[in-house]
Amino acid sequence: MLVALVRNALRWAALIGAAFVVLSIISVMLLRHIPIHGSTVMLERKVEALLSGERLPIQQQWRAWDELSVQAKLAVIAAEDQRFPHHRGFDLNEMRRAWEASRNGGRLRGASTISQQTAKNLFLWTGRSWMRKGLEAWFTLLIEALWPKQRILEVYLNIVEWDHGVFGLEAASQHYFGVSADQLSVVQASRLAAILPNPRARDAARPDPQVERRSQWIRRQMQNLGGPGYLEQLSTN
Fold first, then answer.
1. 35, 154 in Cβ contact below 8 A?
2. d(CA 106, CA 118)
3. Is 210 exposed, middle or buried (0-12, 13-18, 19+ CB in 10 A)?
């Protein structure tokens, strides 16, 4: 009797696992080509607001690749993931540096790539757990295998959180600067990128000294990368 129960449990676990794999692959393939107007993080924020009795309208407008500021694309890469065109979803160099820093007594810092953050924001929930990290790795591998780099960055810029209820570059540009996503200046783009580590506690329009220092560092990194020409590498990956 016990053996039969174990066999049935394993059979069902295998079926559920296989169904999850197939459905996740199909979902990622479908999302390669269509505009995306929501994410699990947006849903999570909406639920959190409802549970706390807060009214939180979600601001997000999809903008295609050519309608997104070149400066913003470069600023986010300079700030978040300078080897984005070259890795396959995981920056092993940054992961090693983060690990070594923590071993030497420093604070354990994040080493997530833009691909990982896209997977996390689109498909998963916030917070930290081994289960979520495992699913993040799975979806990161999928989008790296099934999407070009340009699509990954396009989706990231359209769904990343920039303030309470503000998601995506178009909504953030309008929210902070009153301009469209294709009209951001270098300074504006660098300030938006500078608040991404903690966007709900920082202000791109009225940056504090820490944000301003980081935005200046980001602009130097944008120059070091070679300017907008650096983005041409995304079309070949």
1. no
2. 27
3. exposed
